[in-house]
């Protein structure tokens, strides 16, 4: 009888303990979900009512005890026809957040139209053929529809930086430490937004392009933000276009830095630090550059 009562008490206490554990776990899960939703909130950018594409930004904020006020608007690559979101935004956001830097992923307008019939791109060139890209315009195929999409994407980038500055206080950002990091075609979008910025709220404090040359003729703004360029020296068309971008910035009296890595021929993402290549150091180079310029 006593044994039965004791067993009942233990069973009752065990059930209560299990219930409390489940309730606590549910509460913790709710908190984690809330934190995640805050750290990755999505905000729509202005677009016309007839526009089928809805540009937006996704905000990745670092932990409050790590935040240093710097924000990087990530413009992913994808040839203006797709977005390399996983590598150029989500992985980079984790990398930046770990270092106290806010990351803002930009979903800009894309081109879903076919190339015009009969149009052909000229043969690609290596880094020694700077004459191919006057005014640093390395767009391999200019045509009206493609150029109009690039303009819409540049407008998206300008709208993004205005929105980030508007929310700087709520997101614990320094309005003087907000800039772009563009990859491939996203670099072209960031450059276009920078050279077309017409008001202080949409001018970046810094501009970095990673194997992303300009896709339109460059007229360096005044004042010009500090510019960091990184690419592989043997990346066809891209390297020559970016060397010309560096020269345009310097001719205009702007602050510019150029890194040509000699161990590859195409794009790259975050890479493990093995010491076997120089390209893998690009991400650390970016952080050092931000630090040297007073943004980190």
Structural description of this entry:
There is one protein chain. By secondary structure, the protein is α/β, with parallel strands linked by helices. It has a single domain, classed as Alpha/Beta hydrolase fold, catalytic domain (Rossmann fold, 3-Layer(aba) Sandwich), CATH 3.40.50. It contains 6 helices and 8 strands, in the order αβββαβαβαββαβα. It has helices at residues 2-39, 85-97, 144-166, 185-196, 238-251, 282-292, and strands at residues 40-44, 56-60, 71-75, 102-107, 178-183, 206-210, 227-232, 256-261. It has an 8-stranded mixed sheet, with helices on both faces. Helix 2 links the parallel strand 3 and strand 4 (102-107). The chain is globular and about 55 Å long.
Defining key terms:
296 residues; alpha/beta; Rossmann fold; 8-stranded mixed β-sheet; 8 strands; 38% helix
What would a concise description of this structure say?
The chain is an alpha/beta fold and 296 residues long.
Question: SSE layout and pairings?
Answer:
Blueprint: H1 2-39, E1 40-44, E2 56-60, E3 71-75, H2 85-97, E4 102-107, H3 144-166, E5 178-183, H4 185-196, E6 206-210, E7 227-232, H5 238-251, E8 256-261, H6 282-292
Parallel strand pairs: 3-4, 3-5, 5-6, 6-7, 7-8
Antiparallel strand pairs: 1-2, 2-4
Q: Strand arrangement, largest sheet?
A: 1-2-4-3-5-6-7-8
Provide the low-confidence segments as ranges. Answer: 1-7, 9-38
Alpha carbon gyration radius? 24 Å
| Shape category | globular
* Helix share, percent: 25-40%
The overall pLDDT average reads 89
CATH top level label: Alpha Beta
- Please report the total strand number as a whole number: 8
| Alpha plus pi helix count | 6
Number of domains: 1
Main sheet makeup: 8 strands, mixed
Calculate the terminal CA-CA distance, rounded to whole Å.
71 Å
